[in-house]
Amino acid sequence: xxxxxxxxxxxxxxxxxxxxxxxxxxxxxxxxxxxxxxxxxxxxxxxxxxxxxxxxxxxxxxxxxxxxxxxxxxxxxxxxxxxxxxxxxxxxxxxxxxxxxxxxxxxxxxxxxxxxxxxxxxxxxxxxxxxxxxxxxxxxxxxxxxxxxxxxxxxxxxxxxxxxxxxxxxxxxxxxxxxxxxxxxxxxxxxxxxxxxxxxxxxxxxxxxxxxxxxxxxxxxxxxxxxxxxxxxxxxxxxxxxxxxxxxxxxxxxxxxxxxxxxxxxxxxxxxxxxxx
Length: 277
What we know:
Layout (H helix, E strand, L loop, with lengths): L15 H63 L8 H32 L7 E5 H18 L3 E6 L5 E5 H17 L6 E8 L3 E7 L34 H12 L2 E7 L3 E9 L2
Parallel strand pairs: 2-4
Antiparallel strand pairs: 1-3, 4-5, 5-7, 6-7
Helix pairs in contact: 1-2, 3-4, 4-5
């Protein structure tokens, strides 16, 4: 067998043209993989958003249907000819209509408020106020609601004399939202704790409950808009899935952080971490 060999010592084994072709091919492949992954991410995100919006519309319908039906029934009663002769009954049904109307206004305002926040129109009217004094006022007002459920709200303030510079209205709404959730998601006799503490770097405000808790797989999602922990076809707790999203947005606007620690059937602790300025 004969072989013929030609050697070019000055030439590379692989030409520079081939190297360039391979590099371009690898870059195109990487770009294709990136855009494919990005497209899948967008598709799944849109699917989740669509599911959240569908749940939101269902919850919205339920939230509005109940007060509307109650108002309609009360209006029919007030149209009865003999209602004038029953002042106590007249007053009772008038009060029902007023309460249900206030409930509708509250829900509409909550939706409009979130829409305004979503459009990046968060305008903070910051002021300095005593933290513990404000927390005590919130707890005192909320205690009436807790007592109606045969529950207890405890306050433990360790951040003595701490002053907070923030939007007081939004801050009050955030704490009330956390307290309201703690009450709504507790099936046993409610025991809610409102705690404040601080160190050299941060102020910590916690709302602790003995409620049903949140499964670990859903904890990263509870601050998402419209998200509600799945409970099958029945939601015993009414709402739009907007409360914790509002808490997160207001905390972010102030430069705060919100952390969650929860165990199923053992309760939850929501903690707002406020850097000391």
